[in-house]
Amino acid sequence: MSTYMAKPETISRRWLVIDAADQVVGRLAVQIANILRGKHRPEYTPHIDTGEFVIVINAEKIRFTGKKLQTKTYSWYTRYPGGLKTVLARDVMKNHPERILEEAVKRMVPRNKLGRQQMTKLKIYAGSSHPHQAQQPVEFKLVP
User: Fold this and answer.
1) How many CB atoms lie within 10 A of CB 77?
2) How far apart are CA 61 and CA 13, in angstroms?
3) Rounded Cα gap, residues 1 and 69, in angstroms
4) What is the pLDDT of residue 129?
5) How do residues 44-53 score in pLDDT, each as one tens digit?
6) Which one in 4, 13, 74, 144 has a CA-CA gap of 20 to 30 Å to 42?
């Protein structure tokens, strides 16, 4: 008896639609990251991309718990002296609400080539419509 290893050519991928309205950022990001990685499938293989495509709609209606909306900061460095930039979560939410969920999921996938390839399967939209009707996406019910 040997361990089953999935092969890239044998994996069939579906397109899933997730409604992010009134969902907590971190809890939703965990479930999305697991779907992108393929950990919900019985043929999950750590070094092969076995995940599905994920379309997230209503990213503008996502919520934080506690006072995180006013206190949480996102930081990056511009590679110039004194180039540390920070922005509050409420400002990111106002201008680019899809970036909050994208950053949360990005930090939950592996930080290597495989993780970057898995992140290309994530499509996030602020509104309730998306341009992926041709792929016949299936609505995914989240685990409470």
Assistant:
1) 9
2) 27
3) 52
4) 97
5) 999 999 999 9
6) 144
């990251």: which residue's tokens? 33
Task: Determine if residue 60 is left, alpha or beta; phi over 0 gives left, psi from -120 to 50 gives alpha, anything else beta.
Answer: alpha
Q: What's the pLDDT band for 125 if we cut at 50, 70, 90? A: very high
Task: Compute CA distances 144 → 9, 31, 34, 102, whole Å.
Answer: 33, 10, 15, 21
Q: Is the pLDDT score of 144 beyond 80?
A: no
Concatenated DSSP letters for 64-118?
A: -STTHHHH-EEEEE-SSTT-EEEEEHHHHHHH-HHHHHHHHHHTTS-SSHHHHHH
Instruction: Match 């996030």 to its residue by tokens.
Output: 124
Predicted model pTM: 0.93
> Which CATH number applies to 13-64+96-139?
3.90.1180.10
pLDDT over threshold 90, residue 143: no
